[in-house]
Amino acid sequence: MQKQRHIHLIGICGTAMASLAGMLQQQGHSITGSDAAAYPPMSDLLAALNIKVHEPYAESNLEPRPDLVVVGNAISRGNVELEYVLDQRIPFCSMAGILHDEFLPGRESLVVAGTHGKTTTTSMLAWIYEVASRKNPELAPSFLIGGVAENFGTSFMVRPTRPFLLEGDEYDTAFFDKGPKFLHYFPDAAILTHVEFDHADIYPDLAAVKTAFKRFVNLVPRRGRVVAFDGSENVSECVANAFCAVERYGFAADSTWRVADLRHDETLSRWTLLRHGAPFAELSLPMAGEHNALNATAAAALAAGQGVPAEAIVEALATFRSVKRRLEISSVVEGITIIDDFAHHPTAIRETLRALREAYPGRRLVAVLEPRSNTLRRNVFEAALVESLALADRVVLANVFRSESIPVSERLIPENVVARLNDIGTPAAVYADADAIVEVLTPQLRAGDIVAILSNGGFGSIYQKLPRAIAHSIAAIERA
């Protein structure tokens, strides 16, 4: 029997770390954790698991002394708990390392990687396997997803069956391991969605990003498969020297898996999926956006190749319920729909706004962006950001999150983005923080508006403050 241990997680509120905490708890370990800031959905997940989050970081959080400490990849030297761990020689490891050692031996590792679409595609794949397991219990999946999959109400599941589905992150692993996390997962089969320059804080250029993905592809055994998007030269380069079979998916006529006759009806997408040019299935998905149809196609292709029946794939995609913070309707107040989306890269922002245009035709679209990710806080994507945000009818930017941590020469200047948007006819403005945005924006909104809040963090609790302010504003008008 496996020895049960006290395991402490530093940076427990990260999406993968919170999920790992639940997985380790499910294995019978005693879990403690700490973070600098906790916010939904991961704070809600940890609360539901009765795992207390200690705030802020402190040496006392490591009392009693844990058997093992998992150090999150956002934790750097100088963190008070990490320094205590090193001084006291408490055994420590990374999230990816313990995942490999504790959960993957003897499993079939299916990994979804790519610059965009990982979370949604992994969630779709997990739900496909879940539906298929109703007739074949051996297909019941274990999974680790970088977000809360709404079909499951969780971001993780651990079962005794073989399939283990993982979102493969190209970000670095820990302060002592600067390689990508996905290099620890040794996939039996994999999906590669997109390859673009991202994570400008750790990758110097696109070439370095492509090198990471090439190494990932190189881990897949000859008996395995890589399902790879056909609309990207970068993806093509990354799979060119694969030792395993490569199946392309997308719109190209010669791809193994081809999307045909794609049509959208507000929040419903339908298409014919062709396999080697022959009809495989008629698919429907209760989500808008071409990118979501492509994500679903990738999940369908990988599952089918692993022996999942077509009828299970059709049923699963038709009943898929998305992921928390991915085009999620946060609230509807006085006819104003507030959307919460994790968009953290200009391409993701573009696809999110395109999908909202398809889902809500004819309605005014207001984009509210917090430049928070390590990529968006830098000026390398300034031109691409302007191009993406121009898809909205109006744009509101917050100041760069923790701008002081970005060198001035590399830092995004929101005023530059706003000026360029105004120059091309898209009204835009920048405000200091969530409170200022709520104060200015609330009286300008009207019934029928779609407000897309774009951030990969808590954004000053704007998701709660804006609907509350709208409701109070309407109530004050009615009282008058």
From TrEMBL:
Domain of life: Bacteria
Residues annotated as domain Mur ligase central: 112-303
InterPro entries: Mpl, Mur-like_cat_sf, Mur_ligase_C, Mur_ligase_C_dom_sf, Mur_ligase_cen, Mur_ligase_N, MurCDEF_pg_biosynth
Domain called Mur ligase C-terminal: residue spans: 325-457
Gene3D superfamilies reported in the protein's UniProt record: Mur ligase, C-terminal domain, Mur-like, catalytic domain, NAD(P)-binding Rossmann-like Domain
GO molecular function: ATP binding; UDP-N-acetylmuramate-L-alanyl-gamma-D-glutamyl-meso-2,6-diaminoheptanedioate ligase activity
GO biological process assignments: cell division; cell wall organization; peptidoglycan biosynthetic process; regulation of cell shape
Major enzyme class: ligase
Alphabetical keyword list: ATP-binding, Cell cycle, Cell division, Cell shape, Cell wall biogenesis/degradation, Ligase, Nucleotide-binding, Peptidoglycan synthesis
Domain spans labelled Mur ligase N-terminal catalytic: 6-100
A Pfam family reported for this protein in Swiss-Prot or TrEMBL: Mur_ligase_C
EC numbers: 6.3.2.45
Protein name according to UniProt: UDP-N-acetylmuramate:L-alanyl-gamma-D-glutamyl-meso-diaminopimelate ligase
Organism, scientific name: Edaphobacter paludis
